[in-house]
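Sequence and fold
=================
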Amino acid sequence: MKSREDAQIALPALATHLDLVVDAIDGISPKSLPGVEKPAATTVAGCAEQLRRLRQLLAAGDGEASDFMAEVAPSLAGVLVEEELASLSRDIGDFDFPKALTTLDEASRRLSLEVT
């Protein structure tokens, strides 16, 4: 394209193609992707052991807490409120384990769980 006029002529055709691509992407559900499964519904009781293990890793200052959090986050999302999950993920990612412990303990109290 050499001019603004050329671009203005081409944009409607490009928009049509873009709409087709976006519609195709929107039609893909995670369940239709190979190797991707929808996480099982979780309960507070079902996440209790995960929260205990996460707390142990945080209390020990173990860097594995980051990997473990990434692994269990989908399950915890069914139990923790969005702010708790976001704070835990951020603080663990920043290796601010004391702050993450505080958030985890507050969430555990809210859920009436003993994780210590």
About this structure: The chain has two domains: 1-38, 44-110. Residues 1-38 form one domain.
